[in-house]
Amino acid sequence: MSGTSLDAVDVVAVSFEPQLQLHAQASFELPEQIKEDVLTLCSSGDDEIEKLGHLDISLAKLFADCCLKLISQASGNLSVDDIVAIGLHGQTIRHRPNNWPKNNFSLQIGDANTVAEESGILTVADFRRRDIAAGGQGAPLVPAFHANVFHSAASNRVILNIGGMANITLLPADSQQPLLGFDTGPGNVLMDAWIHQHRGLAYDANGDWANSGKILPALLQQLLELPFFSQSIPKSTGREQFNLIWLEQALLNTNDNLCPEDVQRTLLELSAVTICNEIEKHQFSKAELYVCGGGAHNQLLIQRLQQLLPNAKAVTSTAALHLDPDWVEATAFAWLARQTLLGLCSNSATVTGARGERILGAIFQA
Ligand SMILES: Nc1ncnc2c1ncn2[C@@H]1O[C@H](COP(=O)(O)OP(=O)(O)OP(=O)(O)O)[C@@H](O)[C@H]1O
Ligand SMILES: [Mg+2]
Predict the structure, then answer these.
(1) In 3D, which of 279, 280, 288, 276 has the Cα closest to residue 173?
(2) What is the pLDDT of residues 215-233, one digit of tens each?
(3) Where are the domains of the chain?
(4) CA pair distance 109, 88, nearest whole angstrom
(5) Hey, which residues does 288 pair with through a beta bridge?
(6) Is the CB of residue 89 below 6 angstroms from any atom belonging to ligand 1?
(7) How far is the CA of 30 from the centre of ligand 2 (A)?
(8) Can you give the pTM of this predicted structure?
(9) How far is the CA of 188 from the centre of ligand 1 (A)?
């Protein structure tokens, strides 16, 4: 798994029978050059086909290498022969689920042929595009996995993943009710970009820098006016919408006296408020809330979620449900690969808006 934050490649070795078990896990930093090349391809530019072709292979070699490293690090316990399959998300370089009047598409790169060849392991990849072909958003795909491992018949639950973007899964205790899941907007991506621009850091550890600033009401209001936030579901988003150019436009339109730490605090508030607004709008504000993704480590952000949802039964991390918040997304893509190999559907039509459930993913033999 390599998400929109471009922080790392997360690799897990998991098994699902008789129950979910995590055998090994590691995060491998993305080399600076690859990160730069991905960011270049995340917006339109010159010579894109050449750059894409090149990066498709570099990423694939990196992904295969990360899988092999995980196996060798778990020395004695794991060998290539133990691994049934790699579930490969790929690196998103463009996500256009509402591209009207042109065609919708979503592009994840990191050539699965190369991953299978270099690793010697069967690889399942390209999960999003069948859902898009069936009229869906292609995202998020994790809700079906969340429903599979985190559902409780005793209480409503919300699973909140705070990665580059934030996405929520609403799990009604009554499983006759529809499963819902969608992107709420930015998770960490704007905070990461802003602290990088002003302090050269990759992220704001614990939200400490944000905590030294104050909320800028006019800026927050301006950002909240973006139509995405009031758009009805299904919805999903990416760097195409939430980036520094969008933020800078909003900054030009406000008269606030701008200290960079105040902007950081406001961006954190934007993530918290947009997440909680959606939870309230869908009548899940009294549910149990479990957080995963890197944002689960941002103490100020978690504190704001607790304050904005005072009636929530619990606001805690998925560790309380026996899955460490850092490995939920990667585990989800292993589960998606397993669904493919078992010939089972893994999208949820109520989540993505697809015409129906589909078997997702393509299989590349070892
Ligand atoms: N200690 C911490 N304090 C604050 N933020 C943190 C901390 N650790 C990680 N993060 C944030 O989490 C981000 C990485 O989260 P994660 O890997 O879940 O996102 P992602 O790669 O975009 O994944 P996905 O797209 O699957 O959601 C970092 O970029 C950073 O912003
Ligand atoms: Mg990540």
Answers:
(1) 288
(2) 999 999 999 999 999 999 9
(3) 8-138+326-364, 142-325
(4) 10
(5) 157, 314
(6) no
(7) 10
(8) 0.98
(9) 6
